[in-house]
Amino acid sequence: MIRIGIVGGTGYTGVELLRILALHPECVISVVTSRSDAGKRVDELYPNLRGFVDGVFVEPSANALAGCDLVFFATPNGTAMRMAEALLAQGVKVIDLSADFRLKDPAVWAHWYGESHVSPHLLQEAVYGLPEVNRALIRSARLIACPGCYPTSVQLALLPLVESGAIRLDRIIADVKSGVSGAGRKAEIPMLMSETGESLKAYSVKGHRHWPEIRQGLEQAAGQTVGLTFVPHLIPMIRGIHATVYAELNAGYGDLQALFEERYRGEPFVDILPPGSHPDTRNVRGVNRCQIAVHRPLEGNTVVILSVIDNLVKGAAGQAVQNMNLMFGVEETVGLRSVGLYP
Amino acid sequence: MIRIGIVGGTGYTGVELLRILALHPECVISVVTSRSDAGKRVDELYPNLRGFVDGVFVEPSANALAGCDLVFFATPNGTAMRMAEALLAQGVKVIDLSADFRLKDPAVWAHWYGESHVSPHLLQEAVYGLPEVNRALIRSARLIACPGCYPTSVQLALLPLVESGAIRLDRIIADVKSGVSGAGRKAEIPMLMSETGESLKAYSVKGHRHWPEIRQGLEQAAGQTVGLTFVPHLIPMIRGIHATVYAELNAGYGDLQALFEERYRGEPFVDILPPGSHPDTRNVRGVNRCQIAVHRPLEGNTVVILSVIDNLVKGAAGQAVQNMNLMFGVEETVGLRSVGLYP
Amino acid sequence: MIRIGIVGGTGYTGVELLRILALHPECVISVVTSRSDAGKRVDELYPNLRGFVDGVFVEPSANALAGCDLVFFATPNGTAMRMAEALLAQGVKVIDLSADFRLKDPAVWAHWYGESHVSPHLLQEAVYGLPEVNRALIRSARLIACPGCYPTSVQLALLPLVESGAIRLDRIIADVKSGVSGAGRKAEIPMLMSETGESLKAYSVKGHRHWPEIRQGLEQAAGQTVGLTFVPHLIPMIRGIHATVYAELNAGYGDLQALFEERYRGEPFVDILPPGSHPDTRNVRGVNRCQIAVHRPLEGNTVVILSVIDNLVKGAAGQAVQNMNLMFGVEETVGLRSVGLYP
Amino acid sequence: MIRIGIVGGTGYTGVELLRILALHPECVISVVTSRSDAGKRVDELYPNLRGFVDGVFVEPSANALAGCDLVFFATPNGTAMRMAEALLAQGVKVIDLSADFRLKDPAVWAHWYGESHVSPHLLQEAVYGLPEVNRALIRSARLIACPGCYPTSVQLALLPLVESGAIRLDRIIADVKSGVSGAGRKAEIPMLMSETGESLKAYSVKGHRHWPEIRQGLEQAAGQTVGLTFVPHLIPMIRGIHATVYAELNAGYGDLQALFEERYRGEPFVDILPPGSHPDTRNVRGVNRCQIAVHRPLEGNTVVILSVIDNLVKGAAGQAVQNMNLMFGVEETVGLRSVGLYP
């Protein structure tokens, strides 16, 4: 049994980890930390976990976590980069769900996250935990940078096209829509139901932190620079991301449907829908799955890819557990086979 | 393996049965019928089932269902009472999720459902599938009448009080709130999102079909007549029922919290919350569970019971599978242990 | 023109006052205060007001408000009772939308609001601003206590029955459902969309501050003590209150529909629906109106009254403007004639 | 007083016309037709109109409408083109809110609407009712083709750029999000709240009927062909459209903010937000207004325009009344000055 520690167990990615891991047959939840709710029963705060998760939140500390085989960081940015090194030194593996280890270049990280990186050498060691790209590296990694929710949906939508050279790389547009849980469990007026219900808005159009992450991934896949416009939108629903990605096709791009089906053949958590489909975010709600449809409107030379995930599952906690399974030699789908609620 | 047939697989209770049974280790889905979508792939209509349910919808017929061990009816009222007898005669067990077998008195049934009952003798044989009341009978039943969603939430809220004589029986009030999926998957203007979103209303205040069903259950528990006012409300959310039940306490009613905990001790799917709790419907969304809290406002002599279920799970398909497990000697919780999504 | 000051212009009742008063032909908005946003343009915070409300928020102070004819307090409880006296002394009239002047008994006020009242003598002077009860007193008042949202919906539902003696007064039940805007514009985790969307819960079942206010109003109407159970619920929508009120009819109660129509004949903002109606909260969204339907389920002796308002309009800012019109001799409906959005 | 007829008064654009016209001081609603609800009181179907709209729905017929000065068609496509000519011949002016007269080329119309146009000569006469483009023509028109909701939001977003030559015209992308009321009041399963709530999807990516309408408008503004990709999305909210429009800037494009402010200076219903703004659809809900913000992400050469309207107001009924005011010499804003509800 893998002994698990979760740092930051009271946020939405933390409780989603608890939900998934509570029924995972190969692991035991040893420690769940929370600065704000230490001493409180986990199932008092989250009654959905009654009967599934026992025990109380504890203060985060290296001591408390030392006996774990694996620690997940479900914390705000800036925490994992301060604690990971000590854990790794004790032989504890680390999966970080925050942004601390996602970018390779410390200068770029510092620009977008507003402070110098505390452990820049770990930026190099960290494996970007997108199994559809880095499965082999993940198996042997000590430290995983779990991808952001937007970057997961956009990269999975673009990888077949970028890797195959089917599209022009200088003017890709990703118009992405997210449910409100992506903003986390923080007491902020703009995320009240009265503020976000029955309304829709774009945000961070000037530049969003997931832009350099997406670009880094695409440029690695392409082996060259990529021009990307990325506009996130806040949608009046709780879970789900829908990426609508636009690109210009190069001559001789071939059969797009076959290209996508081929690229993701055998992938347990990427599902290419039949031609003409329009994926609904609800069909992946609560499950570790990306559903994708490829379109060429009016038979022109613009390709439109529609890609949906649950931001808290394939966009966070589910993907983290997928990484865990790979790191510990567990079959990749264990604990992650579930069917989305409909309706 | 239990060979399963589902009649009416395209409605919300039908697809919810598919979702649960797809991962149930002791059964195999043999036949799924649909009059409207015969010939279509199940996962074309319901992309959440891709990779989990194979095959196509077939026309409903006795032949198609004859090879099954168990047939679920997830049909509108009036279908099961016309088909059940033939199946039972062939040794096929039946669980009806519609209202066809819920009432014992054919005259009462005819009054509320607007036609004469076709198989009145089966009304007597049918076991009302509320395991918290009829567990032993269910184990040996051929024909189960699965309780309605409102009746499940209200009866579980009242049974400890009614059985113990703690409350006056002549003036019970059940104010119940339901998500819109309770109305089913039917093309009706009043259930459009534009009509039901961002609004709230009561309906059927003059009298609702679940009223005689609830009263029948309470009177059986009490051994005497019961006076009940029942008002259902339509809430702008998809899943979930919240019953708020009011009754007047008799002298010497004792410790209410203990009464409820005692009554449901060992019940795998009824969860009495700690004193002072207010259950959220979301905490049981997608799971086969009823969470209950007991209150006595301002220390007066009115008891208020708060009871939440998912109308499609403990109020329909989940409860049906719980019945199936009992009927076929499978451990009662198999296929039904899951954790509600939060948020 | 009536010169208006608004204290606390950044909360939901404050901005709703701005919305209504911006188009009111008999008044001019002179001062809008906000501690948190002083110096900021009003229409920067609230872009719906662009072109309708000019100017900036100012720090609240007696000086800033001295030149007004009327000051509205759209503040948290505890502010108006500290500032009203000075304003009244300068001849400024006051309408308080908070709870500071709603209860007559200082001891009851202190019990429910957790501190001693600062201006207990004003509790006696303040007129409870329910025009359907106190129209004449309001016309000559200096200080109005605008009713709470729940109390408005419940009292309007019960007044005809209580005043006429048609019901037993010892066991009235008010099960009330409210949209989330009733909780105000405060940064609190439980009011995030991720927490309140797609879910439903009761709260404060042990006792809610609006209970003594409702009881005070009913006891005044009845001339005797009243037994009331009041349970509020939080509904996943932004605006709207639906009160479902239950009472036992006394013998000889007469024609209920006629009783209600008679009681509210000529009332511009109370609308008795035809027999058999079920009011939707959406039909009064954004408008100063209470719609009511009266039912007697199954022809028994329980009466059920369904009453809907918009908590921010007839339950707060609209009712406040209705009071203003009465106080300043303006026709009562000026600025308040609008049609609810459908859908 | 303008005598008004409304054909198709029971759909969402019809009842929105009723809501606006009920308070319009210069017109009287003479006839409201409905095939399905003839004989029923208007305010029985729409209780929000109680006290504002009297009378009953009548069967549609030329006779019933002959006495009107103006007839609005709020009908499905295909009705107005069969009835307009007869009305015009009797001197009745016509504003069509359907798509019957929006396209100039009968062949293009036939291609997208699936039948031959019945009155192709009227396609030439009809004035496209976008006042920001055709104000002078509208004043003297007999027949107005009221623009579609998507086309209004996208054209207003692009006109300043297209007219001024600031952008490349061969690769414009319009990613547009709409609330569900855009689908109308029709009994269809995909528009049930259980189907559209808490989920998001694109639709008609292969080609949508509003694409030729938008392109026609842009090409008229540009005087040359335009390459446009248009992808609509269905959002879980009732009202509101958010267009996110992407285009590549030509060299020397100048000050974008000034360009937009200049183009719409004096326009009563187009509001250019300050630099850096992100419009919310809620801020224009229920009002005849388009709010627009212009961005250049990361200071690159892609311009992103954010444009919001209420699909039923500036995208339908409000714009129709704006056209009416112009046609009848009423000040353009009469009946249309209102403030959006917040929250």
TrEMBL record, chains A, B, C, D:
Pathway(s) where this gene product acts: Amino-acid biosynthesis; L-arginine biosynthesis; N(2)-acetyl-L-ornithine from L-glutamate: step 3/4
Record-linked SUPFAM superfamilies: Glyceraldehyde-3-phosphate dehydrogenase-like, C-terminal domain (SSF55347), NAD(P)-binding Rossmann-fold domains (SSF51735)
Pfam families, sorted: Semialdhyde_dh, Semialdhyde_dhC_1
Subcellular location field: Cytoplasm
Keywords: Amino-acid biosynthesis, Arginine biosynthesis, Cytoplasm, NADP, Oxidoreductase
Active site (record annotation): C149
Reactions mediated catalytically: N-acetyl-L-glutamate 5-semialdehyde + phosphate + NADP(+) = N-acetyl-L-glutamyl 5-phosphate + NADPH + H(+)
GO molecular function, one term: NAD binding
Residues covered by the Semialdehyde dehydrogenase NAD-binding domain: 3-141
GO annotation terms (biological process): L-arginine biosynthetic process
InterPro entries: AGPR (IPR050085), AGPR_AS (IPR023013), AGPR_dimerisation_dom (IPR058924), AGPR_type-1 (IPR000706), NAD(P)-bd_dom_sf (IPR036291), Semialdehyde_DH_NAD-bd (IPR000534)
Its EC number(s): 1.2.1.38
Gene Ontology cellular component annotations, sorted alphabetically: cytoplasm
Presence of keyword Amino-acid biosynthesis: yes
Enzyme class: oxidoreductase
CDD domains, per the entry: AGPR_1_C, AGPR_1_N
Function noted in UniProt: Catalyzes the NADPH-dependent reduction of N-acetyl-5-glutamyl phosphate to yield N-acetyl-L-glutamate 5-semialdehyde.
Family membership noted in the UniProt record: Belongs to the NAGSA dehydrogenase family. Type 1 subfamily.
Protein name from the UniProt record: N-acetyl-gamma-glutamyl-phosphate reductase
Organism: Methylocaldum marinum
UniProt lineage: Bacteria, Pseudomonadati, Pseudomonadota, Gammaproteobacteria, Methylococcales
